Structure formats: structure tokens, C-alpha cells
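ok so for the tutorial part 2 we go from a plain amino acid sequence to predicted C-alpha cells. step 1 is just haveing the sequence, like this:
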Amino acid sequence: MFVLYLIFPDVTAQKDAFLRQHGYASFGLPLRHQRIAMITTPPMLSFDNTEIAFAHKSEKELRASYLLFKAMSYPWLVQWGTKLTPWAIRSGLPVQGIIRNTIFRQFVGGETLQATIPVVQRMAAYNVQVILDYGVEGMEGETSYDQARDEFIRVINFAATQPNIPFMSVKVTGFARFALLEKLDAGMHASESDSLVKRYQAALKTLPVPEQQEWERVVSRFKTICEAAKNARIGFLVDAEETWIQEPVDALTMIMMDTYNKQDIVLYNTVQLYRHDRLVFLQKCHEAAEARNFVLGVKLVRGAYMERERNRAAANGYVSPIQPSKEASDKDYNDAVRFCIDHLAQIAVIVASHNEQSNLLAVRLLDEKGHAHNHPHIHFSQLYGMSDNITYNLARAGCSVSKYLPFGPIKDVVPYLMRRAQENTSVKGQTGRELGLIEKELKRRKNGQNSKK
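step 2 — the prediction. this is what the C-alpha cells look like for a chain of 453 residues:
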């Protein structure tokens, strides 16, 4: 067995020198979250092993999850619920208790940072890490935006106190006006330049002075969060948005990477591969990172706004940005995984997927190239409350893997919860897979069997 030590406990300077000598930035995972990376014969990886997948859950918890996923298997019920729930919250109806004990408990870590601690510690016992997400979005007003910035920084500082929280996630719509982003995006699309940054700079000049000043405040908030993340050695993940506001988010994130990802990896952008233009976008971002000598941080996802994107395209008479088929989306996603692993010296990638084949592909490519499963430039992630069969089996196989864990008051995380409900209905086979795995584990426990896969 060959063991490659990428971590020298308590000898940071030696470790940093070792990593840079071999062509890697000093952290894909922030330094204090890296484990000793080992290249060895990996255990057989199977996502059918429910004994590993659900070892952290009681029978009562499994049955509650089963009932929730069963309800989400009825599209009409989800459609009805996603329309009435936000209205009921806004109207002050007494529904928060029901939400808290059902969908909130399944997909959210708690209403406050402190409330997430038991959830975080429970996952740590199984070598599963956490991406913290303050699940507030779509706020309005400069005061609210500044408060959101301060809350993001509080999350970063909290994460720095926990041994298994290497990342935190932010939506730019948490501290920037949606309509301003939309206006900038339209201006960028009006430019004929092939350069993302040049389109961004040209669009900025078209804004009236008050909106330019407003955008400068957005940039200032972004920088302040980056500085806090850098100082705390916590990775800062920028979540994806709808296509009609995504361009300025991409541009600003790339500009910040040019500053903050030179030696360490602070910043990650999110690439949605259910869009038919994103594989080329990823390749161009890599070219820019090489030219500017920074590490490209990317989180690969399929996407979360499919129905909204298609409906808007149809209503406004433009070609949908969404892939023509699931097969096309899967192909681009897997090609993106291959591309990133082929360029691990210049790219730090988070494979954020609930697709079993994509995760197996990533592990197989690591093995083929002789990379450790917990290589500092690769991380795996799934949403809290979903695909435990992937997360916990990856952890058992020695991969660096996390759960994306949102938190926040129920009224503020309702948009996130509604997307989870819609996603489990629209993604073919997702709910059925969850139900089948839970049924299998309940049966295994009843019969007192060991899982053989």
C-alpha cells in the first residue's frame, strides 16, 4: 500500500510547501478540514448498502421520512402544497408547527445556527461534513442586504469553530436587488464581446449613476464576505441563480476568484449542467483561470429551476436554456466531471450530485488517475435529507463528502423547501429511489439481516 501524506499535523508551513511543490493550492477543503490523503486499494463502493446509508437514523425517523417522500410522490399534492404553503405563511395561519415536523425537519438543519449543532455532530460521527447555508433569499432593501451580509459572516465565523464544516453557501440575491441583477444581465447579453468580464464592464457603464453606486455596495458586500471566509479558512460557495440574472453573478465571482484563489481556494462558483451552454462555459472559465494564474473553484450541479426556466422561455418566446433531454444533461454533467478531474491542478471541484452514476464515475476516475478519494481538490456533496445512500457510502469509501445543510426561520426557508418538494416530484425516479431504499432498510432491520451490498 502506498500512502501519500498531504497533511502533516500541526506543521502548516511544511504541508503548504508540499502541496504547492506538487502543483496544488494549499486547500480545496480549507486547511484545517483536510485529512491525510491516502492512495490505496479502495473498498468496494455500492450505493445499495442501506445499512451504511441509514446507520445514523432511528426506525422512527426512517418511517417519518418514508411518509414524507410518499406524499411527494403525488404531483398534484406537491403542486397544491407549493402554492398554498407560502400563502399560509404570509397570512399568518398556524401552519409552522406542521411544516417544522415534516418537510422542515427532513431538509433543514434548524432555525438557528446553534440548532444545527446536534445535526452537524451527528454527521461528523460518520465522517460526513457540512456545507452551511443560511437559507434566506429574495430579501429587499439596503438594510436587509447589509443584515444578510452580516449574517453570512456570522455563519462563516461559526463554521470556523466546528471541525467538520469546511464550506458555507451564499446566494447573491441575499444581498443584491433582483431587478438590478436582471438589468445587468440584460446589458451583458446586449454586448457582442466573447469575454464574460468585458461584457460585465460594458453593462456596468450603461447603468445610471444611482444604480452604479448601488452595485458598488453589492460588490463591497461580496468582498467583505470573501475576506471573512479567507481569514476563517472557510470555503465560500456562490449558489446559482435563474439564467436571467446569472451573468453578473458569474462575472463578479470570477473577478473575485482572481483575487482570492491565487494561493488558497476561497471561492467556488456553481455551474448548472442542465443548461446546454454550461460545459463550454466551464472550459472558458478554466482557460481564464490558467491565463490569470488562479485556481478555478467550481461546484457542479444539474440545476434547481427547470420548470421556472422552461415556463419563462415559453412565455417570452425565446429558446429554453435547458437541455433538450435528461440524457443530454447527464452527458454534459459527466463530461464536466471528467474535465475537472483531468485538470485537478488548476480546478477545485465539488461534485454536487444525487445521480449515482455521476458519483461512481468521479470515484472511478480518481482511482484510474491514482488520486486519493479525499484529494484536496475534490469534494462530494448531496442535499441534507436526500440521497443518504450516496453520502454515507462515499464517506465509508474514504471520500471527502458533505451534506448541504440550510438553516433559518421557517418563514424564510419556505422558497428552499418548495424547491425541494418540486425537485423530488420532477426528477424522474428520485422519490421512488428514496422510498425503495427506506423500505429495504426497514425490512433489513425487521429481519435482523446484515446488508450484503
